[in-house]
Prior knowledge:
By secondary structure, the chain is of the alpha+beta class. It is built from 12 helices and 9 strands. Strands 1-8-3-6-9 form a 5-stranded antiparallel sheet. The protein has a 4-stranded antiparallel sheet with strand order 2-7-4-5, with no helix packed on it. Strand 4 and strand 5 form a beta hairpin. It is globular, with a radius of gyration of 19 Å. It starts with 10 loop residues before the first strand and ends with a helix.
Amino acid sequence: MDTSSALRDVVDTMADWDVAAPHQARALSFKFTPSYGLHLVVHYRTPMCSTKQFGSPLSLHHQCQRRHFATILEAGIATSLPCGPLGMIWVRLKPEAAMRLMGERPRYFLGAGIGLDDIFGARRVALLTEKLSEAATSAERFSHMRAFLLSSLRPNRAESIVSRAAALLRRDPCLRVRQLATRLDVSERHLCRNFGAMFGMGPKQFARIARIERVLSAWAQGATWADIAYANGFTDQAHMINDFTAIVGVSPAELVRMPI
């Protein structure tokens, strides 16, 4: 969906899953792979339960998700399973602008499910949930979610070096740290130190995750693994597989064979 002009620089994607029939909802599962984006999840019906996996199924970790939370998945695979009627608004924020909504550095959300009540206040989130549950269409729910986000938006300050670096890496994850520092007119040490303080990872790891997202996007569009490796700056297909496995926990071929 299109966001308003005021949110365009902050919100990357917004989606609504609306499955009111319990038996239909329980037949679904949602798999999430590592992403540089900060994700906001609001359940307006029954919250889902989730598992997180890295590598073999023996490393599965089960947990019941909070009803409304924010998170960044930096490694592994998260699978969410509906426990009843499903109603979920999902928003992905652009990493370079997430602080304008969250008021916290993205690194605090790495691998954590931080409740939206703690960020925006329980009363405001409860009112939003009520509006979402009463809405008859996705268009109405998107409208309520946009209004909530707009009311939470902080003033746009001068763009920091780190924010500019993140935006550049999203557009071109093949950029080397030295190239990035040169383009931003800072030292590599200064860039890496401040980037880590903001995102909880260095620019190199951020770029690796961005490339993994591109790999999955290209595969979904029907490209071959060899073509994907070449197009995304890997030295060869083996290099892509090794990098992918180190972050996701399984190879690309293993991931796409998993049931959805």
